[in-house]
């Protein structure tokens, strides 16, 4: 709730609220994600008094009000909101490692002809829209987001996203990680390398595209260049995995050998008849190949963040970006506002829930949204609305003691709810929760 | 005022009660009280029980006289007039339980609100007992009053909240030919009536 009140205050500065639906629209969009309302039309079935008060009223909001607010978000207002809520404090004066990647949202419209892209989870080329995010691997939080049509690629946005992080985040040093989409053409790779030359504190690692002619060249590297590294197996007792690392250079198209860029070739040896896997990396840094590889593998946390977003925060249910009111359905207009706003709200909720899990203690750090929702968010209780306060009394549940420090901190901040006549919000736990079963 | 030594007459004279003006019933009552004081002593519990009895036995003695007899101040004795026997005993317990310890935290507000609502006849001493029993915290009545007032749980706020506010009777609208009709605001751009994009020809 404290974070949501801060976002509401920011939104009130950014959005023109001509129809008075901003507060309910924003809070509903936030808390629907928190409590697990999968689709906006599920709001019609909500009758929970607590959810109604979370959403800025005394009655549960109508999906028409919320949907109308979402659909008419202007891109420049959404940009202003995003700029003010990007968590740049996570990067400021830090040695940051930020990963940039895209998330593809498939669309099944037949009526509108929108851009197509490759959807990896469905392994097909289909209509879609994309969200490009920056993800801080140290804190494991999303730091920036940009919504685009489906036919955009990471290569088009790699430079703007990177420059935004450098300018706004102002890290002491930045190690940027990109998936292969940022280097589909050699021009894209060169643009990143030029930027890295301009900024001393910038280091770029990019997974190289495995074009056949390049792969042939890497496979022909002398075996003496490769250093074998043993890695733990898939489980305890499993045989160790072997990877072989080599360091070479790659000449980009139309460039001279002097401009060749450093390349780390990772060969994952597969036992049996399976083919070995090749993972080439273009790097600007001068670190050891094994270290560069270890840093790049941290990018997996961003992919994990997307999975949590999709399955726990319904990231694929964000409003579509094509304009359904377009006069020509074969060339629909693209409206970035709703797609980017709700996508960024998903990221904000992801960050806030991760902060909450970290504050709960070491035993809860890194828990997924759905786990915390089951343990702490969706709990029955009583509401007492006095003239001075809204008192929330949760029914007893196992593990409620972990919430005590957080509840004390929340109560000490004396949050007031403007939509409930400025009543003070007070959270309480029922004393003496159920004892755990004995051994 | 102590009655454990001296005579009945001295006890009355210390309490500034003129023995000649007492009725036979009052004299008998006070002799019994004197015997009680002789037997049980003048500790706080005995004095409190005695004062509660004297205040409610319709003896005809004034509150100031009773206060002097048991050794309490006049205002304190006066405040005890409205208490029930249970409250008198709870107050004595509370008084002798020692100094307050602990603090009323905001997160106690929920269980306290629930207790107050499920026990509408509970006194403040009942609430204090509930708090001590639940969180092992002993607070003063003043602290409880401030806490309840802060969260709107005190009796006055609750009474004000439950009292229906008087509504102004609506007057019948008078027909007015020249009344200015405000222009109807345009409908918000939500939920258009029909799609403006053509559907697929298939």
Characteristics:
heterodimer; A: about 450 residues; alpha+beta; 4-stranded mixed β-sheet; 13 helices; about 25% strand; B: about 200 residues; mainly alpha; 10 helices; elongated
Over all CA atoms, what is the radius of gyration of chain A?
25 Å
* Ends distance of chain A: 37 Å
Largest sheet of chain A: 10 strands, mixed
Structural class of chain A: alpha+beta
Instruction: Please state the CA-atom Rg of chain B, rounded to the nearest Å.
Output: 32 Å
Order of helices and strands of chain A: HHHHHEEEEHEHEHEEEEHHHHEEHEE
Structure description:
The complex is a heterodimer of chains A (439) and B (202). In chain A, the strands form 2 sheets. In chain A, strands 1, 2, 3, 4, 5, 6, 7, 8, 9 and 10 form a 10-stranded mixed β-sheet that branches. Chain A has helices at residues 2-14, 22-35, 49-54, 63-71, 75-85, 154-169, 186-198, 212-219, 289-297, 300-312, 336-360, 369-377, 404-412, and strands at residues 95-106, 116-119, 124-136, 141-149, 173-178, 202-207, 227-231, 241-250, 261-269, 277-283, 381-385, 389-394, 416-417, 423-429. Chain A has 13 helices and 14 strands. The model of chain A has no long low-confidence stretch (mean pLDDT 91). In chain A, helix 1 (2-14) packs across helix 5, helix 2 crosses helix 4 (63-71) and helix 5 packs parallel to helix 11. With 439 residues, chain A is an alpha+beta fold. The longest helix of chain A has 25 residues, at 336-360. By secondary structure, chain B is mainly α. Chain B has 10 helices and no strands. Chain B has helices spanning 8-14, 24-40, 44-56, 63-70, 74-79, 85-96, 109-118, 124-135, 141-150, 155-162. In chain B, helix 3 (44-56) runs antiparallel to helix 4 and helix 3 (44-56) packs antiparallel against helix 6. The longest helix of chain B is centred in the N-terminal third of the chain and has 17 residues, at 24-40. Chain B is elongated, with a radius of gyration of 32 Å. The chains are: A alpha+beta (439), B mainly alpha (202). The A-B interface holds A 18-19, 64-65, 67-69, 71-72, 110-112, 324-329, 332, 382, 384, 386-389, 391-394, 404, 407-408, 411-412, 424, 426-432 and B 105-111, 113-114, 117, 134-135, 150-153, 157-158, 160-161, 188-192, 195-200.
């Amino acid at each position: 709730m404290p974070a949501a009140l801060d976002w509401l205050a920011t939104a009130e500065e950014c959005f023109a609220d001509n129809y008075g639906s901003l507060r309910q629209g924003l809070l509903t969009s936030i808390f629907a994600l928190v409590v697990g309302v999968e689709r906006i039309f599920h709001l019609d079935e909500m009758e929970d008094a607590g959810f109604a008060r979370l959403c800025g009223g005394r009655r549960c909001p109508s999906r028409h009000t919320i949907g109308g607010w979402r659909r008419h978000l202007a891109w420049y207002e959404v940009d202003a909101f995003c700029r003010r809520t990007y968590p740049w404090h996570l990067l400021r004066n830090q040695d940051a490692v930020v990963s940039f990647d895209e998330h593809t949202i498939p669309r099944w419209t037949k009526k509108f002809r929108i851009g197509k892209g490759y959807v990896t989870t469905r392994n097909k080329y289909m209509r879609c829209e994309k969200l490009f995010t920056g993800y801080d691997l140290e804190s494991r939080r999303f730091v920036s987001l940009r919504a685009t049509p489906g036919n955009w690629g990471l290569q088009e946005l790699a430079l703007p996203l990177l420059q935004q992080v450098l300018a706004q985040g102002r890290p002491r040093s930045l190690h940027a990680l990109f998936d292969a989409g940022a280097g589909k053409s050699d021009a894209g790779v060169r643009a990143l390398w030029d930027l890295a030359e301009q900024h001393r504190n910038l280091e770029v690692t990019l997974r190289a595209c495995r074009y056949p002619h390049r792969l042939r060249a890497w496979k022909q590297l002398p075996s003496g260049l490769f250093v074998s590294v043993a890695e733990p197996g898939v489980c305890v007792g499993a045989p160790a995995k072997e990877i072989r690392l080599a360091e070479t250079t790659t000449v980009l198209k139309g460039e001279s050998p002097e401009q060749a860029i450093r390349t780390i070739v990772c060969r994952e040896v597969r036992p049996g008849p399976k083919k070995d896997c090749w993972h080439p990396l273009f790097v600007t840094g001068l670190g050891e190949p094994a270290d560069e590889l270890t840093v790049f593998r941290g990018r997996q946390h961003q992919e994990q963040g997307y999975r949590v977003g999709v399955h726990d925060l319904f990231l694929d249910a964000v409003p579509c970006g094509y304009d359904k009111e377009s006069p020509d359905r074969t060339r629909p207009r693209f409206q970035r506002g709703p797609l980017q706003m709700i996508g960024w709200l998903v990221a904000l909720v992801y960050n806030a829930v991760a902060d909450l899990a970290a504050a709960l203690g070491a035993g809860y750090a890194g828990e997924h949204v759905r786990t915390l929702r089951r343990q702490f968010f969706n709990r029955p209780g009583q509401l007492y609305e006095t003239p001075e306060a809204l008192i929330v009394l949760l029914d007893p549940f196992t593990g409620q003691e972990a919430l005590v420090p957080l509840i004390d901190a929340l109560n000490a901040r004396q949050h007031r709810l403007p939509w409930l006549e400025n009543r003070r919000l007070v959270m309480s736990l029922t004393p003496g929760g159920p004892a755990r079963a004995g051994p | 005022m102590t009655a454990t030594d001296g005579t009945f007459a001295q006890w009355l004279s210390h309490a500034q009660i003129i023995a000649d003006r007492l009725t036979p019933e009052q004299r008998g009552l006070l002799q019994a009280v004197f015997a009680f004081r002789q037997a049980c002593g003048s500790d706080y519990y005995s004095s409190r029980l005695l004062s509660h009895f004297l205040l409610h036995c319709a003896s005809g003695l004034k509150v100031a006289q009773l206060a002097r007899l048991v050794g309490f101040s006049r205002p304190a004795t006066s405040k005890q007039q409205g208490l029930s026997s249970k409250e008198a005993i709870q107050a004595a317990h509370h008084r002798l339980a020692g100094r307050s310890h602990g603090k009323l935290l905001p997160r106690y507000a929920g269980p306290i609100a629930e207790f107050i609502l499920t026990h509408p006849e509970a006194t403040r001493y009942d609430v204090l007992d509930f708090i001590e029993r639940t969180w092992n915290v002993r607070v003063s009545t003043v602290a409880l009053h401030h806490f309840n007032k802060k969260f709107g749980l005190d009796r006055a706020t609750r009474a004000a909240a439950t009292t229906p506010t008087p509504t102004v009777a609506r007057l019948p609208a008078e027909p007015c030919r020249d009344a200015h009709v405000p222009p109807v605001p345009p409908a918000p751009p939500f939920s258009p009536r029909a799609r403006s994009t053509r559907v697929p020809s298939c």
